[in-house]
Every structure is written in C-alpha cells, then in structure tokens.
Amino acid sequence: MKIHENPPRSEWEALCSRADSSSNAGIEQIVRGILARVLKDGDKALFELSEEIDKVSPASLLVGEDEFEEAAEAVSGELKEAIEAAYANIHAFHKAQLPKEVVVETAPGVCCIQRPVAIRRVGFYIPGGTAPLFSTVLMLAVPAMVAGCPERVLCTPCGRDGKVAPAVLYAARCCGVDKVYKVGGAQAVAAMAYGTESIGKVDKIFGPGNRFVTMAKQIVSGQCTAIDMPAGPSEVMVLADSGAKAEYVAADLLSQAEHGRDSQAVLVCDDAAFTEKVLAEVGRQAALLPRGDMIASSLSHSRSVVLGSSEDMAAFANLYAPEHLIIQMKDADAMAARIHSAGSVFIGCWTPESAGDYASGTNHTLPTSSWARSYSGVNIDSFMRKMTLQKITREGLEGLAKTIVTMAQAEGLEAHANAVKIRL
Q1: pLDDT in tens, 262-275
Q2: Maximum distance among all alpha carbons in the chain?
Q3: How far apart are the C-alpha atoms of 328 and 378, rounded to whole Å?
Q4: Backbone angles phi, psi at 305, to 5 degrees
Q5: HEC string of the chain?
C-alpha cells in the first residue's frame, strides 16, 4: 500500500479513485448477449449458460425439499446457532424501522394519506464462487420478510456436484424464502428480471455479485425491474490516529481486502510513523491468512493517506464516501458526527467491520464506488413503496377549487380545470 503524505487537495480526487473499470465495455457486450438469450429462450438458455459458463448441468433449476433437508443435516449445530443469533439481531433492528401510515388533513375536508406498501415480488442474488455468502441471505431475506413482501425468491449458482452450499439453503429456509433456484451470474439476473418458464418475474432485484452480475442489474434497471443500488467491488476506509492499535487497524483493512481481487482498503491516518507500523502489521497478518493471493491483488490498488488534522481526515472520508468506514480514534464519536457520506460507520476500536457484516443487526448490503453520497444501504424501506391516497369531501373540493382551476389554466390544461368545475 503506497503512502501519500499530506497530499494537496488538488490530488484528493485521484486518491479517491477505485480499481480500474476500463474493461466494463467488453463486459457490457457479453452481458447484453446473455440477457437476450434468456429473454428469448427462457429455461433452455439458463441450462445452456450453466453448462457453457459454469460447467455445471443441474438436473433441475428449483431446489427440492430433499435438498433443503440434506442441507440442514450438513450444517453444524454451532453454525446453526450463529445464523439464528444473527437472524434475531437483524430482525430486531429492521423491525424497528417499519414506517407508519401518515394521515394529514391538509385543509378542511381534504385528507391526504401516505401508506407504506410492501413490494410484491422480490428476488435475491447470492454469489457462489470462492465464498458462498449465506450471511447475505439474512441481510436480504430478513428485512423482506419483516416488510411483508409476499413473494421472495433466491437465485444462486450450484457447485460442480449440482448442489447449493448447505449454509445458503439453511439460511434461506430460516428466513422463509419461498423458492431457491440453481442459477448464477448475469443469467440469474435476466431470469428474475424477465421471467422464464420456471422463474417468475420479480419487481425488484437485490444482492451483490461480480462485474457481470452488476452490469446485468444496471441494464435491467433501465428496462423493466428495479434494483437495490448501483454496486461495485467492496471497500473499506479506516480513520486512525496514533492512539489506535496497529494490529486492530491492520486486521480491519485485511478483513475487506480478502473479499476479492478488486476490493480496496484505504488507511487515513494523522501520523506517518504510525502508518508505517500499520503497514508492517498488514504484511505480518496477511502472510498468515489463507486468501493471500486475493489479498495481495486487493492491496496492490489500495493506499494509505497521511493528513495533518481531523478536519482534513473527515473531509477526505466524505469525498471518498466509503462503503464501510471504521473510526479508530481517541474521540471516535466526534469524528463520526462529521461524517455524512458513508454506507455504514463503525465507531471505536471494539467495532470491527465484521460485526456489521454478520451479526450486529445493521445491513451489510451497502453502496460502493462513492454511491454512498446519494444512496442508502439496504434497509426496510428498500422493500417498500410509499403510496399516497386522498379523500376529499364536496366542501373540501369547494375550498380547493379556485386554487386548482387557477393553476391548471395558467399551465394551459383546461381539462384539468374542467374536472373540478364540472363537479361544482
């Protein structure tokens, strides 16, 4: 990780850049081809793409009841307890977010209502690959259940043996997921967006994935199906001062670096000597971790920035707008109060990013690539719409009539005005 000591503000934008995405043009062409095939051929395309891309030929797309039972037997009692404990915390935090109906009489006889309504059909994408993310099943399916979404389906790739990771199936069953399908990649997004003979079209797609999945989500969001948020490779920023523990800071940087080769870890510190100490600790810990190659690739486009004041540290963090922001400073609460652009903030040395990833109760599906400036992470509102209703009495309409007619005629919309006048 290269150290940038007291860089001028003119260099900050460059230091906030993420991993190179220049290859996205080629990815888009491939993904559009996959989407077109699924739209045209449905299940047939899904089976063919599984064979071509994943070298897998599942007997069926839908996970059967016997497979759920087999998965439950395969998951250890210890992991079951952990999943259930995390479930309880995630459920409690998201249940507290449930919105209430708003009813306001804006004028005599004019009643306006805002009613929260659950999205009817939601689809979850859970990556397979090097680390099947059963924790993400909890992060998506629990709030969907709390929100009251009637139909909840999940797509995830199966292994060469035609089976889905047992922990993924166990978590799905714990969260009341209706159906699980053995489909991965951009083709899974296509199936949920367009619908096939087996997989029904959903109203909104949630979940992380590689660049192909992300590109597919972006394309279908402009066509027919909403998505949770734009997302890119995972990232973490740690704000630390010389009073922090170097081994804690290094561990937090590495916990995100192991996610993928294009993940990014950024250290922002007020002391160059402490920065060197942290980076030495990063090297020591990384050598002991099993995903060493992945971490090395991630750290190759990660960086350290030394800034002289807490004001500059906060300003740099807000400019970067990290997915995860960890604050290990003497007055971490004061620094947190200065932050307005981050997916999720972890305050103090006893709050590792891993807690939010798994079990504290907050959601780990978060905006990346500076999207935290304008997007929230997944929360209960992600699974709901706010529908407005209004009910007006004759007296209420009489009170509004002049205002409505005047404004409609000023816009040249006489039919709007007449819809009021004809009633009175």
Answers
A1: 899 999 999 999 99
A2: 81
A3: 25
A4: -125, 125
A5: CEEEECCCHHHHHHHCCCCCCCCHHHHHHHHHHHHHHHHHHCHHHHHHHHHHHHCCCCCCCECCHHHHHHHHHHCCHHHHHHHHHHHHHHHHHHHCCCCCCEEEEEECCEEEEEEEEECCEEEEECCCCCCCCHHHHHHHHHHHHHHCCCEEEEEECCCCCCCCCHHHHHHHHHCCCCEEEECCHHHHHHHHHHCCCCCCCCCEEECCCCHHHHHHHHHHHCCCCEECCCCCCCEEEEEECCCCCHHHHHHHHHHHHCCCCCCEEEEEECCHHHHHHHHHHHHHHHCCCCCHHHHHHHHHCCEEEECCCHHHHHHHHHHHCCCEEEEECCCHHHHHHHCCCCCEEEECCCCCHHHHHHCCCCCCCCCCCCHHHCCCCCCHHHHEEEEEEEEECHHHHHHHHHHHHHHHHHCCCHHHHHHHHCCC
Q: What is the pLDDT of residues 358-371, one digit of tens each?
A: 999 999 999 999 99
Q: What band does 41 get if pLDDT is binned at 50, 70 and 90? A: very high
Structure tokens at 374: 């304008």
Q: Compute the chain's Rg from CA coordinates.
A: 25
pTM of the model: 0.94
Q: Could you give the CA distance from residue 191 to residue 27 in angstroms, rounded to a whole number? A: 18
- Which of 324, 398, 411, 414 is catalytic? The answer is 324
Between the CA of residue 149 and those of 110, 140, 179, what are the distances in Å?
A: 31, 11, 14
Residue 219 · residue 29 · CB < 8 Å: no
Residues linked to residue 264 through DSSP beta bridges, in sequence order: 235
- Quote the CA–CA distance of 62 and 289 in Å, as a whole number: 36
Task: Count CB neighbours of 286 within 10 A.
Answer: 19
- Please give the structure tokens belonging to residue 8: 């001028």
Q: Which member of 67, 323, 353, 364 is catalytic?
A: 323
Residues 162-175 have pLDDT tens digits of 999 999 999 999 99
Judge contact between 198 and 204, C-beta under 8 A.
no
In angstroms, rounded to a whole number, what is the distance separating the alpha carbons of residues 249 and 216?
35
Task: Name the CA dihedral angle for 283, 289, 290, 295, rounded to a multiple of 10 degrees.
Answer: -40
Query: Does the annotation mark 324 as catalytic?
Result: yes
Q: Are 270 and 307 in contact (CB under 8 A)?
A: yes
The answer to whether residues 102 and 114 touch, using CB atoms and an 8 Å cutoff, is yes
Q: Which pair of structure tokens corresponds to residue 324? A: 């995860």
